[in-house]
Amino acid sequence: MNAPHENLLDALGTIHLPAPDARIVSLVPSITELLCDLGLAHLLVGRTGFCIHPAEVVAAIPKVGGTKDVNLEKIRKLAPTHVVLNIDENEKPTADALAAFVPHLVVTHPVAPRDNLALARLMGGIFGADAQAEAWCAQFEAEYAALKAERAGPARTVLYCIWQDPWMSVSSDTYIARMLAELGWNLPELPDASRYPRFAWSDELVGQLDAVLLSTEPYRFTEAHADALEKQLGIPVLLVDGEMMSWYGSRALAGLRYLRQLRAMVDG
Known about the structure:
The protein is built from eleven helices and eight strands. The chain is α/β, with parallel strands linked by helices and 268 residues long.
């Protein structure tokens, strides 16, 4: 009998055993990509429609709905041994329903860039890709070191926008905010204290800001939006790649490089 692996703890504190022959359904787009990059695509038997990377690999993996509207019957027919979930992206009722017929739920909750190291090791450890996970972590550490080796620019206050009509941003208690914090950038104080606060433009708000960042997801902001808003506000408004800023897992590697580019764009 295998002994429990203390290092294979998921976000709920559940201990997982190595399962190199697992049948995996991933309900987390960024982790679907990570599993593929770790050489584990052959274990994936289901994914969400939002699991779009790497496109040429996931095209052959059956879809089981979205991250919020999961088709439980499709998952049941796929007979997975493991379903990978995320606390922010998936609903608790979904997890509760899956627990009735899926032997193992692997719950994830990375909240800061360096949490990707534990995430990669968890996926590699459970599904038989320890060496690949360690190689990935070494790449991450190299990118992180390169980011930290650069001369830090001045502290900035930036407003990161994820939606309009109504206008919405992110709180400091989000992965995106902690990505920005790696640059020494802060978010403004908004009256709405929720995780994804709504806000209204005002002279007082704009006066706090060095720049506005419009994300390409979940709202599909474009350069046209950025140009129009910059003319309206009179401060720099930049379009930013939402996947680079909010996707943990594989995209976090490119995300660290992207942060360096973003710093250069704002600091000039």
